[in-house]
Amino acid sequence: xxxxxxxxxxxxxxxxxxxxxxxxxxxxxxxxxxxxxxxxxxxxxxxxxxxxxxxxxxxxxxxxxxxxxxxxxxxxxxxxxxxxxxxxxxxxxxxxxxxxxxxxxxxxxxxxxxxxxxxxxxxxxxxxxxxxxxxxxxxxxxxxxxxxxxxxxxxxxxxxxxxxxxxxxxxxxxxxxxxxxxxxxxxxxxxxxxxxxxxxxxxxxxxxxxxxxxxxxxxxxxxxxxxxxxxx
Length: 232
Description:
- By secondary structure, the protein is α+β, with helices and mostly antiparallel strands.
- The chain has one domain (about 5-225): Aminopeptidase (3-Layer(aba) Sandwich), CATH 3.40.630.
- The protein is built from seven helices and ten strands.
- It is globular, with a radius of gyration of 17 Å.
- It starts with 5 loop residues before the first strand and ends in a 5-residue tail after the last strand.
């Protein structure tokens, strides 16, 4: 884990204008973040960045070490992509970048959604955005409808039931599922090797997400500065 004193979050208004060297660096970051060689592919990374309406980078000493992309999908604020270089993981950078991106994209009251194989992502989506599914807890009907709508928007032909999209990815995105307290739960419902993924969604107000973001900032042992965007 690298020691650093300052993190810069930079909002990019036109990700389609990113130059090739920046895209190459973003691919390096994404592939560092996953434990499986060659995953995600160059095309996968670009597809998770360029079309997104909200794209931001996390930088240390003017070097990109993470990114987050957010868009609107099926009447939800959809967390498209997120990656933090492996050397910088464990510092809360992903949560900061994700929450800032959601604030830039969301309405005053909104449903926030994503798709993932990672139990840690499910955990912070639960903590930050009141998200489901949850272990030993029924999903509220309106959230369940959002899960279904997001799944159908992503792939209308995919098998989807109880929050799980079967064969969402061509293969497992990790050599080994990240160690986390929710790993047992996700392992019970997902077939990782089959490429299954959870569709995750929760309802939150803008004020709740702003409070969560402020709490994340106050918990950091490094300075956070922001360039661009409507939220400090």
